[in-house]
Design a protein that fits this description.
- The chain has seven helices and three strands; from the N terminus they run αααβααββαα.
- It is mostly helical.
- It folds into two domains: about 1-40, no CATH class; about 45-125, Winged helix-like DNA-binding domain superfamily/Winged helix DNA-binding domain (Arc Repressor Mutant, subunit A), CATH 1.10.10.
- Keywords: DNA-binding.
Length: about 150
């Protein structure tokens, strides 16, 4: 019985393909839960952290909501709602675009940059997620994940 079968108390799978998919879902949920727990101490979510990092990469320039949507890791996120929560937390600034009145410009502010700086010093706690793999296995994993992403639309 594999580790996965023990963890989800399932005796077997119909195929290796099914086992692989269930493993990916299980591990994805486990990684997400670890990240959610980590970011909770800072009063933000993983998705809000993702937006702050995108904005830091754009800094001092602004980013539009569409740029944020395109660059988000979680494509199901409601970016407008996340931006509004970050604005209320005084981590970003948002204003109507001078170029396009329908668009919104979003910028990270000093408080948001400070929060990211603090998180950067402690985020190493999440780096041990792949600790059971050696360097060669991590490279192999990355290649396999890249191959899977080739079919992503």
């Amino acid at each position: 019985m594999s580790n996965l079968e023990k963890l989800i108390t399932q005796k077997s799978f119909e195929s290796e393909n099914q086992r692989g998919l269930v493993s990916l879902i299980f591990i994805g949920n486990w990684v997400t839960a670890r990240h959610q727990q980590f970011f909770k101490q800072y009063g933000i979510t993983m998705q809000q952290f993702n937006i702050l990092r995108i904005l830091r990469g754009q800094h001092p320039k602004a980013a539009s909501i569409n740029v944020l949507k395109d660059r988000m890791l979680d494509k199901m996120s409601d970016v407008s709602r996340l931006v509004e929560r970050l604005r209320k937390a005084d981590l970003i600034e948002r204003k109507n675009s001078e170029m396009d009145r329908r668009a919104v410009d979003v910028r990270i502010n000093d408080k948001g940059l400070q929060l990211l700086k603090q998180i950067d010093t402690e985020i190493g706690q999440l780096d041990n997620t792949l600790q059971s793999l050696n360097e060669k296995e991590i490279i192999q994993l990355n290649k396999l994940l890249d191959k899977m992403l080739e079919s992503y639309h």
